[in-house]
């Protein structure tokens, strides 16, 4: 299995499937545990992520760590990736054509990981993974099931930094996530 992960990451590093590889500094493939039961998916790398080659670093990453801590988790207990693996210039949203070019890597990551729960961080991930017409303001925190995998979306940590008024709703979503993990995952809270 480790070989398969390495092969996939190497292939991704050599990808020229859209133009984003031309301006990135580093591929941002994943973080966390490749045996986790819970997968978190954002939209794409920002400047700090591009510098370090790691998803969710910088302020938004710190905020994501704080969110995980609220439900007793950290990066060693979840798997983290993005819809696109190379930084869109100027922190713009990834274009549909870029998302479509890259989504095959996320599908292969998901096939290797076989998560029990997928958490979409923000509208773009939810539209790609849950349904194309996903409305984050109305449907965050709502549980869906696709192919036996439980999934939901929360506001992206960057959105929560920009608009703190959304944090109480996100706290409720996190508590819902904790309940779902305790219900369907066996290894994520191992001490209990
Ligand atoms: S964003 Fe994805 S599809 Fe585009 S070059 Fe990078 S790895 Fe390839």
What does this structure look like?
- Strands 1-3-2-4-6-5 form a six-stranded mixed beta sheet, sandwiched between helices.
- With 192 residues, the chain is an alpha/beta fold.
- It has a single domain (2-183), classed as Uracil-DNA Glycosylase, subunit E (3-Layer(aba) Sandwich).
- Helices cover 44% and strands 13% of the residues.
- It starts with a helix and ends in an 8-residue tail after the last helix.
- The relative contact order is 0.16.
- The longest helix is centred in the middle third of the chain and has 18 residues, at 96-113.
- The chain is globular and about 40 Å long.
- The chain has helices at 2-13, 47-52, 58-70, 96-113, 123-129, 136-139, 157-162, 167-184, and strands spanning 31-32, 38-42, 79-82, 117-121, 144-146, 149-154.
- The model has no long low-confidence stretch (mean pLDDT 96).
- Bound molecules: iron/sulfur cluster (SF4).
Distance between the termini: 28 Å
Under CATH at level 1, the class stands as Alpha Beta
H/I helix tally: 8
Q: What is the helical fraction, as a range of percent?
A: 40-55%
Note the overall shape: globular
| Class per helix and strand makeup | alpha/beta
Strand content: 5-15%
The unique ligands bound to this protein are: iron/sulfur cluster
Trace the largest sheet across and list its strands.
1-3-2-4-6-5
Please state the second-level CATH architecture: 3-Layer(aba) Sandwich
E-strand count: 6
Poorly predicted sequence stretches spanning 5 or more consecutive residues: none
Helix and strand topology:
Blueprint: H1 2-13, E1 31-32, E2 38-42, H2 47-52, H3 58-70, E3 79-82, H4 96-113, E4 117-121, H5 123-129, H6 136-139, E5 144-146, E6 149-154, H7 157-162, H8 167-184
Helix pairs in contact: 1-4
The protein binds iron/sulfur cluster.
């Amino acid at each position: 299995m480790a070989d398969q992960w390495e092969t996939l990451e190497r292939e991704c590093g050599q990808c020229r499937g859209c133009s984003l590889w031309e301006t990135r500094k580093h591929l941002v493939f994943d973080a966390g545990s490749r045996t986790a039961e819970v997968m978190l998916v954002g939209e794409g790398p920002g400047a700090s992520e591009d510098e370090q080659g790691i998803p969710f670093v910088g302020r938004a990453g710190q905020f994501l760590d704080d969110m995980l801590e609220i439900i007793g988790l950290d990066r060693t207990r979840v798997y983290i990736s993005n819809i696109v693996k190379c930084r869109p210039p100027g922190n713009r949203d990834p274009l549909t054509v870029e998302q479509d070019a890259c989504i095959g890597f996320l599908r292969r990551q998901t096939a290797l990981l076989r998560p029990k729960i997928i958490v979409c961080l923000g509208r773009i991930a939810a539209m790609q993974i849950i349904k194309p017409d996903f409305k984050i303001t109305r449907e965050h925190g709502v549980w869906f099931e696709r192919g036996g995998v439980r999934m939901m979306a929360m506001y992206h940590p960057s959105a929560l930094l920009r608009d703190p008024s959304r944090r109480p709703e996100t706290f409720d979503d996190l508590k819902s996530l904790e309940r779902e993990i305790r219900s369907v995952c066996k290894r994520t809270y191992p001490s209990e």
